[in-house]
Amino acid sequence: MSQTSFDQLTIPNRVRVVAENGALPKIFVTSQFSSAEIYLHGAHITHFQKNGEPPLIFLSKKSFFVPGKAIRGGVPICFPWFGAREGNVMHAFARLTEWELTETVANADGSVKLTFLLPENVLVQGGWPAAEVNFIVTVGETLTLELRVENTSTQDFVFEDCLHTYFAVGDISQVAITGLKGISYWDKTENFANKLETGDAIKVASEVDRVYLNTTDAVEIYDAKLRRKISVEKSGSASTVVWNPWIKNAQAMADFGDDEYKEMVCVESGNVKDSKITLKPGKSSVLKVILHSEKL
Ligand code: TA6
Which atom of ligand 1 is nearest to the CA of 72? Predict the structure, then answer.
């Protein structure tokens, strides 16, 4: 994108685009209630903070910010597949692609809406059906994310999608995650064994990597140290993933601090594995997530 187009998308005191030589273009957003930062690289949200509160989104202090690598933390967009794929990149190419910022709006309610477009050729060049893929971000008292996919081809488009959100927590040992009791899940730490969530709340005291199936419910993250509850509300999503890498994986990731597992947890919303989406020609899907936080 050219500086001219960036200038046309700038909104004084609300939206500023910085495209310094060599650095990844970055958008700074200021709403009446909060602030956010988003890279064109992957349309990747890396920061969201309500005025007077700690950041809601975790970003690794060791993240890379270079083409070809995913930013570590924030809200990676996993599309058109989730997880590993033979001979291909983990979590697919949408988060490695430079998206186009197509619209910025300062809403009357003090929030700010930004629309990003996945360049059309990216899917077709990868052998996927043509589709129009928009990511709409509304920064306000809440952070609302919508991944909209319209199948513009003449064939079925079968894909997975997931907003792989990293949440900032005060101390993972003082966190409880609710909203998944009674839901079955694949446990990646035990070779994807199929299990049932029986606890009222999930506590993290070792590596957790679970894909919960057929759940449309909201998930709450109770953070005793920060005295905060984060609510992850969603629609158009049948899967929820909960991940904390814990010690060994933290030490193995070059773009993640050895101790950073203590200050984050991923609660991811999408449609993966058995819940993958089959979109008929001309049809659309919307994966929507609304992130709230409130003091405990
Ligand atoms: O969503 C959980 C997960 O699939 C984990 O298994 C782990 O691989 C994590 O995503 C991070 O993946 P990444 O490719 O961003 O390192």
Answer: 15
